[in-house]
Every structure is written in C-alpha cells, then in structure tokens.
Amino acid sequence: MEHSRWKRASERELAEGYQESAEIEQERQEHRLSMALAKVVYDRRTQLGLSQTELAARSGLTQAKVSRIEGSDSVPTLPLLAKLAKGLNASLNIAIDEADAHVTLTAHEAA
Q1: pTM (predicted TM-score)
Q2: Signal peptide position in this chain (predicted)?
Q3: At residue 41, does pLDDT exceed 70?
Q4: Where do the domains of the chain lie?
Q5: Which of 8, 60, 65, 71 has the most crowded Cβ, counting Cβ within 10 A?
C-alpha cells in the first residue's frame, strides 16, 4: 500500500475512534524507550568525537554491542547501561511513568 493511502487509512481510523490493543501500545512504548536510549547514546558518542569502537573500548563492551544499542536492536541490562554511561563520561537517567518514558545523559564535569 502506498504511503498516501496508509495515511488516509490511519486518519480514518483515528476519526472513527480506533484504539490499538494494550499489547500493541505496550510494544510501541518499549520501542520508543529503546529508540530514546539509542539516540542519547549516539548523540553523546558523536559529541565526544568517538567511534563505536572507541566507545566500546572505553566501556568494556564490543563494537557490535554498541551498534546494537544505537540501532535499538537490543535490550541492555543494568550493568551494561552502567558500563555504557561510564564510557560516555555521563550519568544515564531513565524516567518511566505510566504514560511515558524519557532517557537522558548528563555529562560529568571535566576534572
């Protein structure tokens, strides 16, 4: 289906009061959180002028793992997130509430 048709169908569903199932909405929320993490990691890495390989070395991870995080292809564990934050010289902040989630990295002050 071409994009313009999809958009019209989507608009029609919204106008008719269509609501997605709770399972689909939860999957969307999880995907948004994963994408938010990917964006802040990528943004901070490029701000520091690091390649994925350099960030991996600083974090004790593999370049492939950094790539999967930046591509929102994996769900990292808390210890992995701690390593990543250390490698990015920042504090990782994740705020999750019922309706939304936010991910930020706060750079540490230079010593």
Answers
A1: 0.75
A2: none
A3: yes
A4: 22-107
A5: 65
